[in-house]
Amino acid sequence: MAVQKYHLHDGKGGAALAVRITPRARKNEIVEVQNDGTVRIRLTASAVEDIANPALIAFLAEVLEIPPANLEIVAGKAGKDKLISILDMDAEMVHKRILSHLEQ
After folding, report:
1. Which of 14, 35, 79, 96 has the fewest CB atoms found within 10 Å of its own CB?
2. Are 33 and 100 in contact (CB under 8 A)?
3. pTM for the complete prediction?
4. How confident is residue 8, by pLDDT bands cut at 50, 70 and 90?
């Protein structure tokens, strides 16, 4: 798989990350980075909002090596396309950690 650079956005307190989730997968994993910069993630959790969203936050916290409290879904809570706010981490570091996870 070709490693692709994608666009993250720095904000006042961190970065923003666009994700598209696929629920009910065999394992939690980052699948790819799409051309538009969206990170595709498969989750074992079902698509129910109160199950999938906490699972997404927990998985991203593990991948990014930050506390779950530093992550917040700011758009798309009920859909598969979401915007995640990442506090206290710049876009460059988010990019590095996602690419590192993809290479595993």
Report:
1. 35
2. no
3. 0.84
4. low
